[in-house]
Design goal:
This protein is of the alpha/beta class. The protein has one domain: Rossmann fold (3-Layer(aba) Sandwich). It contains 10 helices and 17 strands. Strands 9-8-7-10-11-17-14 form a 7-stranded mixed sheet, sandwiched between helices. It has a 4-stranded mixed sheet with strand order 1-2-4-5, covered by helices on one side. Strand 4 and strand 5 form a beta hairpin. 44% of the residues are buried. The structure holds S-adenosylmethionine. S-adenosylmethionine binds next to helix 5.
């Protein structure tokens, strides 16, 4: 059997499509992140572990991607201690949960709750080209990859996310499932390529959410679907919040849209059949501090005396999904 290189393997599902994408727009950012990882002292033990002989025996014989936690059994020869060391080096785990053998990774977000809101809105995925933009470690991507798409590719520009995905995928080995370590800007390299783009938790981090949505449109084939999720504010008469300082302690939340503003972004981009799903306030049952994300979480981001406000006095985050079709 060929030797399995976990970092390279995340890119491999893209290779058959190299004539349809614009590599000059995809490769530079991925290469920069690759070099950043290889030069990092912090990641050196992890990279060494991923390239070791013993890591070759991590592939699971049985995986269960359908439950709340994505689960995989480990073969008897797997080095469980090396796997746990790698996972602990990768703290914080923002999305999940996962269970690899006996190891339970209880992430900050109980992402199964978001999955239960997303899943009913997904088209049948068999044979589709699917992207998850801002996929973090790929929790949603892996679930979608289990539905036999032609390709399921995640994009995220953060090294920790890429490495978490590489560890997970070296155990799960879901076919046609890859990860491009790059941001939404790199979608420019996928002109009219995807049938479905899921983009969740990314919009409010964009200084210009309108142009981000236009980019989603350009990367969809005609007839393709965008599913865009965001933290939103839900206060009558307030289409968008442009926080002057932080929002829920985040330095990089530039525009918090209302669900109506999100719909407008999709309409302006040219989407048809726009539908808005408003799911109400994010709760501390869904986003909370855990052993695997041992830092401040939603409970610390809200006003302790009034959970309808953030600690800064802004409307507290709600969650909404807006969907749209690129017309034929
Ligand atoms: C709030 S998390 C959302 C994660 C996941 N999609 C979810 O909905 O639970 C935002 C993610 O977007 C990623 N991100 C940050 N800047 C980005 C960019 N320019 N393009 C794409 N993703 C980005 C972050 O690394 C992070 O994983």
């Amino acid at each position: 059997m060929d030797r399995y290189y976990p970092l390279l393997a995340t890119l491999r599902p893209l290779f058959p499509f190299r004539d349809e994408v614009l590599p000059q727009l995809l490769i530079p950012e991925a290469k920069r992140l690759w070099k950043q990882v290889l030069r990092s002292q912090h990641w050196a033990p992890l990279v060494a572990a991923l390239n070791s002989d013993s890591w070759q025996r991590m592939a699971s014989s049985h995986r269960d991607v359908g439950g709340d936690a994505i689960k995989a059994s480990l073969p008897p020869s797997a080095d469980r201690e090396a796997l746990e060391r790698a996972c602990r080096l990768l703290v914080p785990w923002r999305i999940g949960p996962f269970q690899l053998g006996e190891l339970v990774i209880d992430s900050e977000w109980q992402s199964n709750l978001k999955w239960s809101r997303l899943q009913p809105l997904l088209p049948p995925l068999r044979g589709l080209r699917v992207a998850d933009v801002g996929c973090s470690n790929g929790y949603f991507l892996l679930k979608m990859a289990a539905c036999a798409p032609e390709i399921a590719i995640g994009l995220d520009p953060i090294d920790r996310c890429w490495l978490q995905f590489a560890v997970l995928q070296s155990v799960l080995r879901l076919p046609q499932c890859g990860f491009l370590p790059a941001g939404i800007e790199s979608l420019e390299g996928f002109p009219s390529f995807f049938d479905l783009i899921v983009c969740m938790g990314v919009l409010y981090h964009q200084r210009d959410p309108r142009s981000a949505v236009k980019q989603l449109f350009r990367s969809l084939r005609p007839g393709g679907t965008a599913i865009v999720e965001s933290l939103v504010i839900d206060r009558p008469g307030e289409p968008e919040l442009l926080p002057k300082g932080r929002y829920a302690k985040m330095r990089n939340a530039w525009v918090i849209p209302s669900p109506g503003a999100m719909a407008l972004y999709l309409e302006e981009a040219g989407f048809h059949n726009i539908a808005v799903h408003n799911f109400g306030a994010v709760t501390t049952a869904e986003q909370r501090r855990t052993e695997w994300a041992p830092y401040e979480s939603l409970a610390e981001f809200l006003d302790p005396n009034d959970c309808s406000l953030t600690i800064e006095g802004h409307p507290a985050p709600h969650s909404a999904i807006v969907t749209g079709l690129r017309p034929l």
